[in-house]
Amino acid sequence: MSRATAESRWHWTSIAPVLALVVLAGTFTTKPPALVLGLVAIVLVAAVLAAVHHAEVVAHRVGEPFGSLILAVAVTVIEVALIVTLMLTGPEDTSTLARDTVFAAVMISVNGIVGISLVVSALKKRGLAEFNAEGAGSALATVLTLATLTLVLPRFTTSEAGPEFSGGQLAFAALASLAIYAMFVFTQTVRHRDFFLPVEQGHGGLPDEDADGHADPPSTRTALVSLALLLVALVSVVGLAKVESPAIEDAVAAVGFPHAVVGVVIALLVLLPESISAVRSAARHRVQTSLNLAYGSAMASIGLTIPTLAVASIWLDGPLELGLGETELVLLLSSMVVGVLTVVPGRSKPLNGGLHLVILAAYIFMTISP
């Protein structure tokens, strides 16, 4: 990447968060017309892409696997804020919005991001995508435990009439989710950090001025500026998504799709930057980084969203349905079985990635046409 290109990208990603904040200030308390909503959508996408760029700059400064963790948490903050604001200000029934969005994030992460990353890496290497089986296996096990605890168990509890937790059960699930997520972060970043490093190290075309074979990290000043712009971008994305949310719900209703599709749209929106980062890492033969992003995003979506909702439930009216339906349970089980068979060998053929992508396609199709 040339110096001119780097400066241009930096310039563009510096303007986008500030512009998004200005647009948010002008539209947050109003109901914009369709043309303005279109412009807001463009600025929203720009802010999302700028957010992931600045998260990557910070991540490059702190190194792996801290980088993947920062990206996952940054994206999840957007998701959690969107869910809570939509549930607090949404129309009639938002009891299943959290479940739909979290499950969509899990399915997109463990099938979509994992699948396309494995396919891209395996095809570029003309053989197998290689990664650390111990790290990927630990991450997948954590996702499975969190999903079972928060999305499967409510389907079978009897304290409440519907697929929801009682107050005590929700509090337990929230604390357990936080504990599980904290244990994984400690394992990933302290105790067994080497399990989560790419199998093949490389700089992937990034600048290497000292010719030591590794990409040069940004300066502390650059990283701090990116951190500030990342925070601005996150605030802007949350606010602009709130501005756009009525249009999203109206569009879903207009085409006759089930309300669960709203959760899929939200998840696709907030995971877009993470998906781009994962594919770029896979193209550089850093599949472990891609898996860190995918599984880290899935577990952060659950491990941070459920505790937040447990606190927000104090102000939320109506039930909070977290239990999955029969179709979703089958798809989750299929995802986990295929995921285990994929990560255990520590290397993957394009076939494995293709299987994950087919499961994702089945999930999206069944959500649209249940």
Record keyword descriptors for this entry:
disordered N terminus; two-stranded antiparallel sheet; 370 residues; mainly alpha; A middle domain of Talin 1
* CATH class identity: Mainly Alpha
By CATH, the superfamily comes out as NCX, central ion-binding region
Give the amount of beta strand, in percent. Answer: under 5%
Q: List low-confidence stretches.
A: 1-9, 201-214
Subcellular location: Membrane
Domain Sodium/calcium exchanger membrane region: 35-189, 226-368
Main location: membrane
Membrane topology: Multi-pass membrane protein
Notes on the structure:
The chain has 370 residues and is mainly alpha-helical. It has one domain: A middle domain of Talin 1 (Up-down Bundle), CATH 1.20.1420. It is built from eleven helices and two strands. It has a two-stranded antiparallel ribbon. It starts with a helix and ends with a helix. The N terminus is likely disordered.
